[in-house]
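Researcher: I'd like a candidate sequence for this fold, 208 residues long. If you have to choose between options at a position, lean toward the conservative one.
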């Protein structure tokens, strides 16, 4: 894809790869809708859709990365989609939620320990209960101790880079999109997205 002057995604090339056999089904340049001449390339969005629909039906599962952008550039609505970006983002958010839950549990334990220390100090007639507060590690804290725990909102870690290039390098140890500003190879991207989805499925099954 490219970007038009209106900032809308522009369709440049359409590539389809069979998910099971990695067979290249379709790999064609797409002419602009208002092109005066037409060679062996597909004629505009309508021509690209017609060619795609020869192989993709309403019950065909479409796999990709950021598929919403591809569908939008094609002006195509398809409901059976596995979007690598969405699945990876979902797993990142799930992991963050689990980490946040554990952090809150630790903070609750710390508060309970501090409350218990205050009760014991009160029973013993201590006037300076601050010196009796301890952290989970058992380190004594004082009012002037910079390591003393304060009630601050938890810092939620931001999701990592979920670009296709980064995910491919991280999980497949494969370099793609190495041409810089010259653009991407849609066939290379399609195969990478396919392989990453397979890897994601294997990881999910292994984690059950």
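Model: Candidate sequence:
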């Amino acid at each position: 894809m490219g970007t038009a002057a209106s900032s809308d995604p522009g369709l440049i090339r359409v590539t389809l790869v069979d998910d099971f056999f990695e067979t290249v089904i379709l790999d064609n340049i797409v002419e602009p809708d208002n092109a005066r001449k037409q060679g062996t390339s597909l004629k505009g969005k309508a021509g690209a859709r017609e060619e795609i629909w020869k192989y993709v039906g309403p019950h065909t599962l479409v796999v990709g990365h950021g598929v919403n952008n591809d569908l939008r550039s094609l002006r195509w609505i398809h409901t059976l989609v596995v979007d690598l970006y969405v699945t990876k983002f979902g797993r990142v958010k799930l992991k963050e939620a689990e980490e946040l839950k554990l952090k809150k549990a630790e903070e609750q334990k710390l508060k309970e320990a501090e409350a218990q220390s205050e009760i014991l100090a009160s029973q013993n007639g201590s006037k300076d209960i601050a010196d009796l507060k301890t952290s989970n590690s058992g380190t004594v804290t004082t009012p002037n101790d910079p390591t003393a725990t304060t009630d601050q909102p938890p810092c939620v870690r931001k999701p990592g880079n979920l670009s296709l290039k980064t995910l491919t390098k991280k999980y497949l140890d494969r370099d793609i999109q190495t041409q810089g500003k010259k653009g991407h190879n849609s066939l290379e991207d399609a195969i990478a997205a396919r392989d990453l989805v397979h890897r994601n499925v294997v990881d999910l099954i292994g984690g059950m």
